[in-house]
Amino acid sequence: MAYTDDAVLAKLSALNESHDSIATAAQWIMFHRRHADRTVQLWLQRLKDSPSPKRLNLIYLANEVTQQSKARHKDDFVLAFSPVIAEAAATAYKGAPSEVQGKLRRVIDVWKDRNIFEVPIQEAIESRIQELDKARGAPRSGFGGSIFTSSSVPSELAPLVAPQQNVSKLLLSTKAAINTANQEFDKVSDPSQPVPSAPVYAARLNGLLKNLAVAEDAVAECVKARTELIGALEKILDTNKAALAEEEAQLHTFSSRKATIDQKKKDVEFAIMRGLNERDQSPQNGHSASPEPERPEVEALTPPSGHDDFYDEPGPAMPSQAEPQTTRSPVAPPQATFHHTAAPGIDLLSTLASQYQSVPVSANGANKRRRVDSNEEFPDLGNDDGIDADVAEMLRKDSQAS
């Protein structure tokens, strides 16, 4: 089918909500992509004249055409739809049932997620939808990506909202005027086109002048709006530069303070550790506050030599023990004579002496022994202690008889 306005309108009128119908119409429209601008104009006019359900189908068709063109890297229809898509979306959204409005929001979200249109175009679409929701008192729609929505804009960026929205709105009309002026200029300036008659050529030139004037005015308005936006941005930039300089000075101040305090902390910790080390080392230097206890005296293993009672062997007699021996009368002569004389008491004395030598233990302890190792025949009995009186008398008589 050849491309004509009637053919395009027929395709749009036969459109229904099925995917096959939308895909077939989209393929035919994309085949005639050199007529993209005219097709979009007819599409917008049909959308305005259609009821709400039919408008949703036309939005689906625009979605199919733009996504397929974007996937094939053919931007003819994307550029053609960009100037009018915000108005078309607002027209389809206004007065539609809530179900249809929800479907339209999902389509707009798809455009945003897949970057079908440029950011200003996408923001303009969302802004128009939000204005409609606000006008009828409905809750805000679920567009969360725009940085210029009222709930997400910080107070510092509030002066940027109005200039940015103005630029976005002017950009749509400016692009349309620029495209029209460029196309008309190319037609008139194309050397391959035959030169029409003078009146027709003059009329074309007159129309081109009007289109160029419209494009010039649109671009001038866009330049004015963007200059205002840049001025607002510069104010915010100057404010942030001043704040940055102040914060950098504060950063330097706090960094130096931190370094000073950190050094003080290290000095205090070093002093504490040095004091602990001195206190730990003071006992080793002999400066302990409490003196060490004296070592216990070890008792000798052998008793002193003056106490002969602890010895088994005979030792030198104490002075107190020697005095009786010096005063005692010697008995050696009687013993010597008694040794050569047979006397009746000799046997008795020998028996007593042997018994006296055989006494093993004294009454003062088990380790004390008194030994008689002298060469005398009769032992020194120490003042006759322990001799019976009868025996002493008998000895005296024997000695006198001899």
Describe this structure in words.
The protein is mostly helical and 402 residues long. It has 3 domains: 1-147, Serine Threonine Protein Phosphatase 5, Tetratricopeptide repeat (Alpha Horseshoe), CATH 1.25.40.90; 157-273; 332-401, no CATH class. Helix content is 65%, strand content 0%. The chain contains 14 helices and no strands. The chain has helices at 5-13, 19-31, 36-49, 52-71, 76-81, 85-93, 98-113, 119-135, 158-189, 198-281, 319-327, 332-340, 346-357, 389-401. Helix 3 (36-49) runs antiparallel to helix 4 and helix 4 packs parallel to helix 7 (98-113). The longest helix is centred in the middle third of the chain and has 84 residues, at 198-281. The chain is rod-shaped, with a radius of gyration of 69 Å. It starts with a helix and ends with a helix.
Structural class assignment: mainly alpha
Counting structural domains, the number is: 3
CATH class of the largest domain: Mainly Alpha
Main sheet makeup: none
Task: Give the helices and strands as they follow along the chain.
Answer: HHHHHHHHHHHHHH
Quantity of strands, as a count? 0
- Beta-strand percentage range: under 5%
Shape: rod-shaped
Q: Helical content, roughly?
A: 55-70%
Counted by DSSP, the helix tally is 14
Average residue-wise pLDDT: 77
CATH topology of the largest domain: Serine Threonine Protein Phosphatase 5, Tetratricopeptide repeat
Return residue spans where pLDDT drops below 50 for at least 5 consecutive residues.
144-151, 310-342, 361-369, 371-375
CATH-level-2 architecture of the largest domain: Alpha Horseshoe
Question: How much is the radius of gyration in Å?
Answer: 69 Å
User: What is the distance, rounded to the nearest whole angstrom, between the alpha carbons of the first and last residues?
Assistant: 192 Å
